[in-house]
Amino acid sequence: MLLIHCPHCREDREEEEYSYSGEAHIVRPLEPEALSDQEWGDYLFFRKNPKGIHHEMWYHAVGCRRYFYATRNTLSYEIIETYKVGEQPQVSAQGAAQ
Amino acid sequence: MSQINRLNTGARTDSTSRINFTYNGKQMQGVVGDTLASALLANGVNVVGRSFKYSRPRGIVGHGAEEPNAIMQIGSGAATVPNLKATQVELYEGLESASVNGWPNVNFDLMSITGWFGRMMPPGFYYKTFMYPAKLWMTYEHFIRKAAGLGSAPVQDDPDSYDKLNQHCDVLVVGAGPAGLVAAREAARAGARVIIADEQSEFGGSLLASINSIDGQVATSWVDELVAELESFSNVQTLPRSTAFGYYDHNFLGILQRRTDHLGISADSGSRQRLHRVRAKRVILATGAFERPLVFAQNDIPGVMQASSVSTYINRYGVAPGNRMILFTTNDNAYQTAIDWHRAGRAVVAVVDSRSAPSGEIVAVAQEMGIRVIAGSGVIEAQGGKRVRRALVAPLNGDGTEITGVVEKLACDLIACSGGWSPAIHLSSHTGAKPVWDETIIGFKPGQSVQKERSAGACGGTYSLAGCIAEGASAGAEAAKLAGCGDGTVHFPMPQIKEFSEQPAQALFLVPHTKATSRAPSQFVDMQLDVSASGIELAVREGFKSVEHIKRYTAMGFGTDQGKLGNINGMAILANALGQSIEQTGTTIFRPSYSPTTFGAIAGADVGALFDPERYTAVHRWHQEQGAAFEDVGQWKRPWYFPRGGESMQDAVNRECLAVRNSVGILDASTLGKIDIQGPDAAEFITRMYTNSYLKLAPGKCRYGVMLKEDGMIFDDGVCACIGDNHYLMFTTTGGAAGVLAWLELWQQTEWPDLQVYFTSVTDHWTTATITGPNARKVLAKVCDDIELANDAFQFMDWRDGTVAGVAARVFRISFTGELTYEINVPAHYGRHVWEALIAAGEEFDITPYGTESMHVLRAEKGFIIVGQDTDGSMTPADMNMDWVVGKNKTFSFIGKRSLQRSDSVRKNRKQLVGLKTVNGTQVLPEGAQVVFDPEQKIPMSMQGHVTSSYFSSNLGHSIALAVVKGGHGLLGKTVYCPLADGRTIAAEIVSSVFYDPKGERQNVE
Asked: How far away is chain A from the Cα of B611, in angstroms, using its nearest Cα?
């Protein structure tokens, strides 16, 4: 069971307080009607499934009810960082941010 | 039977005491401090079980979690526990034990006499035999289970209680042998919060059976002092009888504590077992090592035991399990067993040492005692039936692969074996650390730590007592420092210990026989599952190469002992057969659980009424008083129907539905989700979430809306009301409330944080009484005098603030039945009062409480959908014939809008909502029934859709059903068929999904 740091509560809490909400940083197209079916389908259905560093979204469902992002290693399950919506990760698959 | 093998030397037993127990119905006696295994050995019991495949007699081999053979059924009746290892069951007065296999009993087993069954079962038997014909599997399985199965689970409810404890600590020490005890002491001294757990009944580990002296005192009293010191720390929690069975992510470990098993008391002494869920900052694994058996012909005959176990039985329990012992060893360490045996006054026939010139200090000690040492030799075969009678000893070549001389027969009744030691790396493996082969210790050591843990002592390959203590001390100090306590300095004074310096051990994984492995009597690797060396070689000849495949093909290590003894020998034999090194072959990965864990402990107290929370409305007790039948809707208990005077469910529902249409009914709708939404951008936000627009919804007005997921499929529906400027109240389905709230939060927080809008769940704040029917207004008028109720003043889809039965209320004129309806919302604390006032006011109209079943029938008569029943996550509004709810002129592309134009969403033959009217109106279709066009078509028929809702309508006098049918909107009037599982086929006509009052005039009551 993971131990997850909520960047809003600023506490390490048990995984059972959270729910997983898929890949992070997916931006809704500003003009959906301008997209082809294929482009819209890419936004709707296609997600990364990396082995290693992954940015994902979590919801502190029975805590502060806030969504946030986590950088997690899908291989070791290590959570490298958690950060608020609107912020950028310090660590990515390309390495640490400058 | 008397305790023929009892000595008075047991350090942890009291040989003057008596404990009565039964084994397979026989009365026996043991002493205080015994395990069931030591007591059985004291009583001279040889055969304790029959092997899984070949039904061979088996005896006790080990003294702990590694025991493969002594599998017992303990107790009887509801509290019986199957498949416990006798080596781990503490003896208590009145204990009942029985072997789990052997038929008709372990001493006379028919299966072994017939013998054919064993020959039928080579490795891969399951795959080879049971693949074809598949139909026979059930027959085979039944036979196998009867013939060779393990114990029986109780059929009654478990009378015991269990609980769970969530724990946090700085340092968790697993294992309370010398390394673990010292580690815990050092960490505690540094101020760390420490938990130390050990699976045995008392702390001390290997020292409990040691005759070493530490600082001039016997090892066990050194242990006692250390344990007493640990217990004096307020920051230390000691957990004996507690097995750390799993090491999970982020330093989370499960520990099973057996609290009362050793007392034999059921139910009335608190929880029987407790599951500790421990989150530790640092973990020290001090889990010790298992002695490795030696693989020779017929090494499974009762009387072949682990050397360290023999020493343990003598020194700890005061039991000498035999009279004439041969020790077969590859190392110096095991000579201690010969010395212990000799001191116990029993005959050591010989020490057979595979090394050509054993020269260690302890070898000399044994020889000085007059013990015969046969060097450069091995026991190549044990002989005997239900007990060893003799050993065949032969000289071996230098690397132990060939017999080089004449075979000597030595009479004996016990062969103690030691092939060296294998570190207990199970918990380290759970973390994902890959075990590393170490040639110097001839074993796998824990790999690179993945979690915040380190191994100390024998589980890391350090076998000397002084080394274990030193490593424990430094691990404890280091762990405390890393957890933020102390500076990592070791304070523990190293004790004076006299240990023999040891000469190198020899690697010997398979003892050769005069015959080839395939021809020799079975040389067992895994006793519990009857995997032999020849079986592994056969599997290699059949083409298996990967250790993981071999494991599954031969079933090696699949037993309840998880191959704690046999695995390393098996892998080495495999490596040899493949002509490669053990390192190249690798090891299988251990996974949780380390040893069997009861379901009771995992469930804890979350059973029965505590399994899941139940939610009640404020009117719940009234419903109970009326004798309502309840239905679970999520966690809510909702009245299902209100039977009167022995009515059947159908009779009650018929009556309730008629009452609503003819006069007035009342429904407790409090469970509907309610979300209070406020903020300057509330209207804009809501409009983005629903298919229709709320920008122009005025205070006092309501609107029905449908919410889609971004893929265009219906997700929830409900009414949303404008309460005031920038203030809305959103109703959701009962089951969807939490999901909708999370959905709103998701979009606001991640996509449109610039929109100022706030959401609050107010579901439980309100009691909602829905009164519906032509007389609804007359009822409401009797208890409400401050709302103008006239049809044109308080119109359909309006809501009003007012006072109902003296309580401030919000009254919504909306309708889920098609009748004139008022949904009266009052603060939940006044719920029952208002409800009863409505019942009293409605008495003259025979107001009828109705439940969810009638609610379903009434809405189905009107063709109103229930999200999640008539939809399944693949239905668009158009599929539901609800295009009218999709705003065509909304400027913002609301959630799901673009998807409604996807080629798949506009496909012509999508499943579409229709009504079904059975040709025979008394027949009610089962929900879920498949719809086909041609009932004569050969199976598999072409499925055209399925029934989503189906009821008998007392108002219409015939059955009604809603269904989704491919292209259904264009098929009105077509006859379709529902072939049922019982062989009947019901014919039905596709009709409009609105069965009743299609023009919607019923709610316009003047």
From this structure: 16
